[in-house]
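Here is one chain, start to finish.
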Amino acid sequence: MAIKKLVIAFAGPLVNCFIAIIVLAFYKRASLQIQTIVYANLLLAIFNLLPIYPLDGGRILQEIIHMIKGKEKAYEVVNYIAKVTTIILTIVTSILILYIHNIAFVIILSYLWYLVIKNEQNYQMKKRIYELLN
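Its structure:
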């Protein structure tokens, strides 16, 4: 079951990379539209691989840890890594905003913080359930 979830989580970023490769292979002239398609798909693949649940990277990390350490530990580790990743991205994004002046960074970062906060709430609820069961 965990391996199936792992394969499904990898499928999203792989499709984005596959689209970028196909577009590059079939269009010899690198026009602005082609470059935009390739760039957008590669950025989407990288974004999806961030280790923040419920992004694909978070799901992949959770399933790998689940297979090694168990479900309860997987929730704990993924929650911690998501927080650390988002804090690092906040620092990097803050510096980028000073130089690039792009509001899109703020919107993306707000979305990531929303995901981390929702994941923290779910983690706390699951933690209480595990405590009650033990």
